[in-house]
Specification:
The complex is a heterodimer of chains A (387) and B (145). Chain A is of the alpha/beta class and 387 residues long. Chain A is built from 13 helices and twelve strands. The chains are: A alpha/beta (387), B mainly beta (145). The A-B interface holds A 112-113, 115, 117-118, 122, 124-126, 128-134, 137, 140-142, 144-145, 148-149, 189-194, 245-250 and B 5-6, 9, 20, 27, 29-31, 34, 37, 53-60, 62-68, 87, 89-91, 93, 95-101, 103, 109, 113-114, 125, 131.
Chain lengths: 387, 145
């Protein structure tokens, strides 16, 4: 038996580049915005979970927020830092132990592609020395094979990026807020074939904070809450193909995204057809395409038709990455997964302004789906519901 | 020939082979694990021939720890423009064994296709070291195979 959990406050520091403001300061900004949104003060928060990949520990935020003696757990889980912080906050309340919890993620990365140390991933030095330890190469090779096997065209890759930049123009928190046309995207410098410059997201800065509450607390406060219907975090199964692998099994294995998606749908008791808005990890154009299928929203190869017909546009059959996703927002690793949840909270509450997805009865959508994927092969899915 | 980028990465001799490992379960892995992870894993010489499983181009200079041409500050010794050369890489399926990530040499991007026949080779990497790669089998070699 576990308690229902609701997100009653959401705050964001705009993504992109903010010179002169540290990642943690951006985190504090997001926390204050989330508190104001929920109508709470910092001393009301009973426990906190948060972290960053490259901008330091989250628990030091108490210096700015107030020394209230709350338990504040640092989360360091790579791309799933935000997702893991959310899962921990959700469990803290579902267990009945707390009534108000904070999940926060922030980051500030240097410009250019991420660089990784082989030893940190249990890999030999030659793998990095010879130039094979780049996340961008993995994404390029995963989509290259997928395109050959399932008939996805380069134009479709371009359409994903074109949609992202178009949606970004409508999201105040997005980094890239100017549209880029399909020709420009397709003819831009090639980074890793078949992906051009505009098809990759960039490391960035930003922060997101979410305040979670028990049902009892939400009612007591009269807060505007969105129910956390389910959360699933899964690491990779045997024989999967992931980022940073010098060798891959010839047996085709499972995928962490497929596992997390199935688990989240099962726990929620709903299916892909019930989802009204989805935020899918789009580290690059190919990722969004493959993740549409891995999360159960279409069959392999159907994305060609989806993108050509605009079915994943705002106003389409299933709007995907309504704030422009990672492509338009950039990827501050610790905050990125929580941005997706933030966007769904805004959509479900009907507060998404120009990018609002229409649900039935003139309100926002009922179910929102978010999915994050990262090294070394893990996925987190959250399904939210507007009751 | 330069030094090997890693002394244990491939076997010596006129027909070198990449070194993988055979797990107690019989599964072949690459690279050969090291340290405690190597316990119970037998070194295994991998096939010199395989088929292209996927590929990409590397169009920009990788950050550290990359040690190829163009890496490091003032790579040409005069602080001038770096001499980075774009390269190709891919995954090569060694039938019945494992799929290995490797440089692809002796081919152009537009020549590459799924299932293309490739063979193992050693190539110069930087001023001091060699690395491994796969290259297309020539028509005559394909027939001889």
């Amino acid at each position: 038996m576990s308690e229902n959990v609701y997100i009653i406050g959401a705050g964001i520091h705009p993504f992109g580049r903010t010179d002169g403001r540290s990642g943690r300061e951006q985190g504090v900004h997001a926390v204050r915005e989330a508190l104001a949104d929920a109508g709470l003060d910092w001393p009301d928060i009973e426990c906190a979970y948060g972290g960053s990949a490259a901008a330091g520990n989250a628990d030091i935020m108490v210096n700015e927020l107030g020394l209230t003696s709350l338990p504040f757990t640092n989360v360091a889980n790579g791309c799933a830092t935000g997702g893991s912080a959310l899962a921990a906050s959700q469990q803290a309340i579902a267990s009945g132990m707390y009534d108000l919890a904070l999940a926060v993620g922030f980051d500030k990365h240097p410009r250019g592609a991420f660089n990784a140390k082989p030893a940190d991933y249990g890999l030999p030095e030659w793998y990095g020395q010879t130039g094979m330890m780049l996340t961008t190469q993995f994404f390029a090779m995963k989509i290259q094979r997928y395109m050959q096997l399932h008939g996805i065209s380069r134009t479709t890759l371009g359409r994903v990026a074109e949609k992202a930049f178009r949606n970004g123009t409508l999201a105040p928190h997005a980094w890239r807020r100017s549209p880029v046309d399909l020709e420009t995207i397709l003819n831009a410098p090639m980074i890793n074939d078949p992906l051009t410059k505009y098809m990759f997201c960039s490391p960035a800065e930003g922060a997101v904070a979410l305040i979670l509450a028990s049902e009892k607390k939400m009612k007591e406060l009269g807060a505007d809450g969105v129910k956390v219907r389910s959360i699933a975090v899964k690491t990779r199964p045997p024989n999967s193909f992931e980022v940073f692998q010098a060798g891959v099994s010839i047996e085709e294995g499972g995928k962490p995204t497929v596992l997390a998606s199935k688990a989240a749908f099962e726990r929620a008791g709903v299916g892909p057809e019930d989802i009204g808005v989805a935020q899918l990890q789009d580290t690059e154009s190919g990722a969004e395409i493959m993740h549409m299928a891995e999360n159960g929203f279409c069959k392999d190869g159907d994305q060609e038709e989806w993108l050509a017909n605009g079915w994943s546009e705002i106003g389409g059959r299933l709007p995907v990455n309504t704030d422009g996703g990672c492509l338009a927002c950039g990827e501050p690793v610790g905050a990125s997964g929580l941005r997706q949840v933030y966007e769904n909270v805004e959509q479900l509450r009907g507060r998404a302004g120009e990018r609002q997805v229409a649900g039935k009865n003139g309100t926002g959508p009922r179910f929102g789906y978010s999915h994050v994927y990262g090294a070394p092969g893990l996925s987190a899915v959250a399904i939210l519901e507007r009751e | 020939m330069g030094q090997k980028i890693d002394p244990d990465l491939w076997s010596d001799g006129s027909e070198p082979q990449l070194m993988g490992g055979r797990l107690p379960s019989g599964q072949i892995v690459f690279p050969m694990p090291v340290g405690e992870a190597a316990e119970g894993v037998e070194p295994y010489k991998l096939s010199r021939r395989g088929k292209l499983w996927s590929w990409t181009s590397q169009g920009f200079l990788p950050k550290e720890p990359y040690e190829g041409p163009g890496s490091g500050a003032g790579a040409d010794g005069n602080g001038g423009p770096p001499d980075f050369q774009p390269f190709l890489l891919g995954y090569v399926e060694l039938p019945g064994e494992v799929i290995v990530e490797s440089r692809i040499t002796g081919a152009r991007l537009e020549d590459l296709y799924l299932g293309m026949e490739l063979e193992f080779c050693i190539m110069p990497f930087n001023a001091t070291h060699d690395t491994f790669a796969f290259r297309p089998l020539t028509a005559s070699e394909s027939k001889a195979a």
